[in-house]
């Protein structure tokens, strides 16, 4: 391990790819596991939490880590695939130690932990050696002063305080995709998860909620005030919000719908009126909709929106007014691949695919699957009896309903307990 840096900061490891000796990526680093020692002794780093493909988190002992550098972690390639479970004697550096309030013994300065350094000793063991902390800000515009001190120079790292805060943990999650952040939050202890959720803004929390298992969604929403829960539901896609509200007690669901903005609540109520296992129940009511006089350039500009999923961006729907669902009559669909081959000034109405039957809201999951497979599509329009566009069903909507319940937490391998 001679090429490994002598000091590595734990928070900077989050998200780094993990490779086996052959250079194949086996996962990503999610956290560092340590055992705190009595007194001021440096905690021993026992391993890394690694998210393997399939969004499963496993434990990699430090004895299996052969190299750590600024861009990657290399292991022996022999990972135990049993799901990681934190032991009572263990602490997560990123998940639990960041934001902990500490005091520098010599000066009495109080601050919160924003990173922790780990080093390898002569015996090749890894220990936590330094603490990076930030004082509270003394003005609105200036950040508090930062300090980096030796582990034994601070008090408070062994104490788990209520209302710890989550500013620095949120910062470490900021660069993660919602699905990855959701997986980290799912594995946090209940109290820490509550602190993180409280510190997240509504839009980010909505994105993460959409990626969490149903039981986590309900638990988190029930711990929020009704006013904030309604705000978060408004930020979610209507189909995901409808699914979540359907899982809540009826009285709670009714109250939250009343607190939501009328237009947002109307979309959710409409989706809730359809059967959950139908095209109407799982469709998204916000596809890319254009008028017949829109140009190819306008269509391409709309599908470039980074907030659109790839499946939603694959098709545009040309309708008569009104252009919000339920629209006027659906005139046809245009595929992004076709749009890319046409002159920007061409009207979208001139390149429509009109030879496709459309789904109705009562179509079953099997109907939707057959439709997408028959026409080689990743999204399909859903219309009413008058041919008005109600929404679109995407392949990811379909998979969410076809995969077994709890698939987000599904095992991807078997193994034995870690020693």
Structure explained in plain terms:
- This protein is an alpha+beta fold and 419 residues long.
- Among the domains are: 7-86, Roll (SH3 type barrels); 201-273, MgtE N-terminal domain-like (MgtE N-terminal fold); 289-402, CBS-domain.
- The chain is built from 16 helices and 19 strands.
- The strands form 3 sheets. Strands 1, 2, 3, 4, 5, 6, 7, 8, 9, 10, 11, 12 and 13 form a 13-stranded mixed β-sheet that branches.
- Helix 15 (365-375) links the parallel strand 17 (359-360) and strand 18.
- The longest helix has 11 residues, at 262-272.
- It is elongated, with a radius of gyration of 25 Å.
- It starts with 6 loop residues before the first strand and ends in a 17-residue tail after the last helix.
- Residues 411-417 have low confidence and may be disordered.
- Belongs to the peptidase S8 family.
- Residues 283-350, 352-410 form the CBS domain.
Task: Give a quick rundown of the structure.
31% of the residues lie in helices and 24% in strands. By secondary structure, it is α+β, with helices and mostly antiparallel strands.
Q: What's the topology here?
A:
Layout: E1 7-9, E2 17-19, E3 25-35, E4 44-52, E5 56-61, E6 65-68, E7 73-75, E8 90-92, H1 93-97, E9 101-104, E10 110-120, E11 126-134, E12 146-150, E13 154-155, H2 167-173, H3 178-187, H4 190-199, H5 202-209, H6 214-222, H7 226-235, H8 238-246, H9 250-259, H10 262-272, H11 279-282, E14 289-290, H12 296-303, H13 310-313, E15 315-319, E16 330-335, H14 336-340, E17 359-360, H15 365-375, E18 379-383, E19 389-394, H16 395-402
Parallel strand pairs: 2-7, 14-15, 17-18
Antiparallel strand pairs: 1-10, 2-3, 3-4, 3-8, 4-5, 4-11, 6-7, 9-10, 9-13, 10-11, 11-12, 15-16, 18-19
Helix pairs in contact: 3-5, 5-7, 7-9, 8-10, 15-16
Protein name: Magnesium transporter
GO molecular function: hydrolase activity; magnesium ion transmembrane transporter activity
GO cellular component, one term: membrane
């Amino acid at each position: 391990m001679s090429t490994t840096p002598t000091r590595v900061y734990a928070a900077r490891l989050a998200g780094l790819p993990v490779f086996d000796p052959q250079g194949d990526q086996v996962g990503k680093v999610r956290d560092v596991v340590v055992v705190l020692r009595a007194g001021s002794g440096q905690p021993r780093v026992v391993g890394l939490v690694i998210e393997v493909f399939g969004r499963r988190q496993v434990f990699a002992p430090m004895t299996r880590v052969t190299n750590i550098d600024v861009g990657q972690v290399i292991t022996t390639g022999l990972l135990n695939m049993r799901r990681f479970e934190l032991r009572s004697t263990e602490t997560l550096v990123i998940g639990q130690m960041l934001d902990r309030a500490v005091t520098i013994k010599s000066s009495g300065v109080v601050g919160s932990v924003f990173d922790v350094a780990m080093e390898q000793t002569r015996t090749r063991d890894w220990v936590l050696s330094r603490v990076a902390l930030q004082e509270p800000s003394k003005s609105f515009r200036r950040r508090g002063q930062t300090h980096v001190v030796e582990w034994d120079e601070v008090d408070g790292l062994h104490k788990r305080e209520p209302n710890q805060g989550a500013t620095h943990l949120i910062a470490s999650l900021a660069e993660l995709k919602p699905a990855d952040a959701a997986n980290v939050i799912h594995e946090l202890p209940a109290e820490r998860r509550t602190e993180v959720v409280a510190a997240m803004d509504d839009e980010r929390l909505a994105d993460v909620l959409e990626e969490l298992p149903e039981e986590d969604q309900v638990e988190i929403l029930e711990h929020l005030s009704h006013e904030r829960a309604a705000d978060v539901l408004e930020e979610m896609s209507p189909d995901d919000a409808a699914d979540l509200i359907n899982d809540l007690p009826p009285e709670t669901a009714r109250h939250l719908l009343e607190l939501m903005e009328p237009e947002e609540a109307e979309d959710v109520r409409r989706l809730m009126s359809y059967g959950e296992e139908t095209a109407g129940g799982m469709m998204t009511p916000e596809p890319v909709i254009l008028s017949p006089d829109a140009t190819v350039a306008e269509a391409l500009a709309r599908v470039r929106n980074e907030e659109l999923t790839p499946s939603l961006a694959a098709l545009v729907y040309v309708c008569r007014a009104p252009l919000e669902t339920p629209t006027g009559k659906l005139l046809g669909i245009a595929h992004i691949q076709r749009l890319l081959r046409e002159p920007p000034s061409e009207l979208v109405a001139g390149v429509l695919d009109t030879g496709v039957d459309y789904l109705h809201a009562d179509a079953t999951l099997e109907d939707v699957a057959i439709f997408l497979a028959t026409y080689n599509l990743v999204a399909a329009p859903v219309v009413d009896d008058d041919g008005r566009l109600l929404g679109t069903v995407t392949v990811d909507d379909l998979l969410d309903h076809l995969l077994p319940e709890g698939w987000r937490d599904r095992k991807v391998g078997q193994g034995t307990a870690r020693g």
